[in-house]
Amino acid sequence: MKKPVLTIVVPCYNEEDILPYTFSELKSLMDEMVKEEIVAADSRILFVDDGSKDRTWNYIYKEMLKNEYIKGLKLSRNVGHQNALLAGLFTVKVKSDCIVTIDADLQDDINVIKDFLERYNEGYEIVYGVRKSRSSDTFFKRTTAQGFYKMMKSMGVELVYNHADFRLMSRRAVMELERFEEMNLFLRGIVPLIGFKSTSVYYDRKERLAGVTKYPIRKMLSFAFDGITSFSIKPIRFVLFIGCFSFFTSLLFALYFFLLKFFGNTELGWTSIITSIWLIGGLQLIAVGLVGEYIGKIYKEVKRRPKYIVEFDAYHSPLTLPIKESDSEGYAKDYRKILKSN
Ligand code: UDP
Ligand code: MG
Keywords for this entry (predicted)? Predict the structure, then answer.
């Protein structure tokens, strides 16, 4: 049987602290897999530099010169984890039979990539890596993440529980993914929509060895909020429901006040008025804000801006790399020499 060409796509944003470790781990895994004839010899590892501000690109560049498995893709600026993943996937899809995506910090167990390939050979087009437990996460991250999955489920969005972006996709699945043209791509929600034969592989997630999380609370919240509003209009329905509810209650109140006026004490309380003003005002602002959020999404979608821009694609054409000595600390110059000698 022909061995599949595998590409491992690794998004990196300011990962200089951990990259040396990541390189060596992934390289030895690749060596092993090629030796064991699990994957074809022209399999590659693509590091996507998502507009890092540290020496991430230089590290990738240097490594690329040393090892033929390693390839680099430099994006023109930081576009976020999800878009960096897409950039990687779409860049390598033609030359790869299957693609694995994994975070640069290797918190996910790279050894299960072999299991992914086994499933792929059994005919699965999408293999999800699923964490057995979240014991390595902080209590805060664990509970917020679990709350998020539950909330998404209640809104009718099917996510694979405890699956982050560690998965294998066949070329066909990636081709189909490309047809989802929306701007607000939340991969964990979209990939299950592709369908095809899918399965999960379970593993233990480790702690980050170096560097810091690139998902501080602010980014996590906006990620969750994007996830919800890109997939579900339930929040808007909810607002409508609250609106109807408060409208009908206010009718009841009106009736009550009239009855009081004609049959009882006309000294109507200031408290009830002021409370309802604040209550209704607040609800209205929330409602308008929420609707605005969706309109904002529509606005973003209709513009159809590119999700990422590639600065250097060292995967396809190494010669597009910078050739000025000042660029990338002169590595490019060495690179040209190597090319000439080959
Ligand atoms: N990442 C990226 N662009 C960003 C933020 C993060 O490419 O704007 C990458 C990051 O380098 C890492 C992965 O996305 O490889 C996941 O980030 P991180 O490990 O910090 O997230 P966590 O595991 O804490 O959720
Ligand atoms: Mg991580």
Answer: Glycosyltransferase, Membrane, Transferase, Transmembrane, Transmembrane helix
CATH fold label, 6-215+309-341: Spore Coat Polysaccharide Biosynthesis Protein SpsA; Chain A (3.90.550)
* 15 CB within 6 A, ligand 1: yes
Burial 158-172 (b: 16+ CB within 10 A, else e): ebbebbbbbbbbbbe
Tokens of 214: 């690139």
The model's pLDDT over 20-45, given as tens digits with 9 standing for 90+, comes to: 999 999 999 999 999 998 899 999 99
Which of the ligands is closest to the CA of residue 308? 1
Structural tokens at position 92: 């390598």
**What CA–CA distance (Å, rounded) separates 211 from 55?**
13
- Whole-model pTM over 0.85: no
Dist CA 102 CA 234 (whole Å) = 32
| Residue of 13, 100, 131, 138 to mutate, ligand 1, most atoms within 8 A of C-beta | 13
| Predicted pLDDT at 13 | 94
Sheet holding 163-170, edge to edge: 198-203, 126-131, 163-170, 98-101, 6-12, 44-49, 70-75, 310-313
Instruction: Give the span between the Cα atoms of 112 and 218, in whole angstroms.
Output: 31
